[in-house]
Design brief:
single chain, 269 residues, alpha/beta, D-Maltodextrin-Binding Protein, domain 2, 10 helices, 29% strand
Length: 269
């Protein structure tokens, strides 16, 4: 099993590079996390979870993320992660491949809702008011970019899209007046720094869609996958585990099934 070099950006966060670690041991598994709200937030949310998984299973993990969502999707396509927490469109893509990743868990009772946010003091009251404005989107984000773009086009709104690295980058751009509006999801807005969140209001909310998924690569031994899967799903059985899952799966994780993402497939993106 090959693993990859990492460049630290904060104490708890690593960014994947393409170089191979020559002396990597076979019992260290790379766990990739999509940087939905930025790499620092991904590290803050997931490092404690991986530490708890190590305690419960004896399996060692290397946390990994990237500086932005498009780069993460590229790394996923290149199968650089052993386990990964990924967005719905990436899940559908990799799950429909013959050899690659398969589902091991999903947030229980969670649906993604895309939103468009504006400053609280802005004059915009409906989507059509954004005509000829700049709108920020987190690049490659399903509910925060793909869905709002489609609805804006359906409403005949003409705008300039500003693609950004993460949800937090979008909220910052809107809060500071760099763009008139921005795409996101309710969960990432709630998790955004108060200095941005408190200046924003939701202009529009989408229909609900299936959430992110946790996957394992087919190269990972079946007994390792099973141990990790069971440990993830049992995390909410104790107060500390429920707290760790708070920003990812407030009601805990469940096994899920591939058909849960048929709503994404039906969009034919």
């Amino acid at each position: 099993m090959k693993h990859y070099a990492f460049v630290a950006i904060v104490a708890l966060c690593s960014i994947v590079s393409g170089a191979t670690i020559a002396d990597a041991t076979d019992n260290v598994y790379v766990f990739g996390v999509v940087p939905q709200s930025g790499p620092t937030r991904a590290a803050k949310d997931w490092t404690p979870i991986l530490q708890k998984l190590e305690e419960r299973t004896g399996i060692r993990f290397q946390f990994a993320t990237t500086r932005n969502i498009p780069t993460f999707s590229e790394r996923l396509d290149s199968q650089k992660f052993d386990f990964a927490y990924i967005n719905p469109t990436d899940y559908v893509k990799v799950a429909d491949e013959d050899d690659g990743y398969h589902l091991i868990a999903r947030p229980r009772n969670v649906k993604l809702k895309g939103i468009l946010v504006v400053r609280k003091d802005s004059p915009y009251e409906k989507m059509e008011d954004l005509n000829k404005q700049d709108i920020a989107f987190p690049a490659n984000a399903f509910a925060a970019e793909v869905i709002p773009n489609a609805i804006l086009h359906d409403h005949g709104v003409k705008y300039t899209a500003r693609r950004m690295a993460s949800h937090e980058s979008v909220y910052r751009a809107v809060a500071t007046g760099r763009t008139a509006a921005g795409g996101g999801v309710v969960r990432s807005l709630n998790a955004a720094p108060a200095e941005y969140r408190d200046q924003l209001r939701i202009l529009w909310t989408s229909e609900p869609y299936s959430p992110h998924a946790i996957v394992a690569h087919t190269r990972v031994p079946a007994d390792v996958v099973k141990a990790v899967q069971e440990a993830l799903i049992e995390l909410d059985q104790e107060p500390q585990g429920r707290k760790m899952l708070g920003h990812i799966a407030p009601e805990g994780l469940d096994y899920g099934q591939d058909a849960d993402w048929d709503d994404i497939r039906e969009l034919d993106l």
